[in-house]
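For the sake of transparency, this paper describes our internal protein records without simplification. The record that follows is passed on verbatim for readers who wish to inspect the format:
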Amino acid sequence: MDPVSQTIVVPQPTIVDSRAGAIWRFGKSLMVSPATQAVLEWTEGWLPPLRAVHARLYEREFARVVPWARRFRGAYATFQEAVSAAPASKPVGYDNPAAATFMESSGSLLPSDYPVLFWLGKALAESPSLLDIGGYVGISYYSYRDYLTYPENLEWVVHDVPAVTAAGVEIAQHQDSRGLSFTNEITSELGPRTVLAAGSLQFMEENFSDLLVRMGALPKHLIVSKTPLTELPEFVTLQDLGPAVCPYRIFNRAKFIQSIEALGYRLVDSWANPDFRCRIPFHPDRNVPSYSGLYFNRVRLL
């Protein structure tokens, strides 16, 4: 069928539906904008019944299984408390097929990725051994390789849960993945010189400092990015991914940094990740307007 014929046979309802969908998407984006949410929270403060209705609607939406989402709910003292509050309609965590495959294996870089590239390039030039904690199916490996020259003897090990690493292995078999491998365990046998944690530590119940100690020989370089650090006491919220829900740590910045420095590291650089934020409905005092990135270098032996 030629292009003219294709244009003629497009039914009018498709155009109407498309316009309606665009209006719906615009309305939805407007409703979740920070400005709209601030107005809504102010209004609900004066009208408690409106807040109650909003809470019920949000609970229902949070429990709904969708292909992708990034929303938060609640403030809890521990991981266990957050898990207990998770909706029964969704699996908890990434260790399931739906959560292991809902994101692409690579993506476009954001402004806050460039400090990571700067320090990662220096670290890999010094040593090709890297552990990518919570690296999903290799997102950082695939996204950064167009911007960095990876060493010929690169050893880029992604640590994640079994369902995710299985998906990562499958993807790696069908494209160039030189030097990339996957593991479900962090042991002293890995011995990486560099550790990258890009948006993963908040999903882990274990403290980052304790995880580093389990590696035996401590890595020289630590690159942390896309991490929610605040001046608040640490707490846990729930993040809705769409196909699953996860406990999600919000760190106290000073406590987090001190725990790393106590292992003999020096904080060399820090930067903001304004591309990432955490807004927790009904808990405006717990919102994180911008995430953080940090680079540590180990300067003394313990």
User: Anything to note?
Assistant: Residues 113-298 form a domain with the Rossmann fold fold (CATH 3.40.50.150).
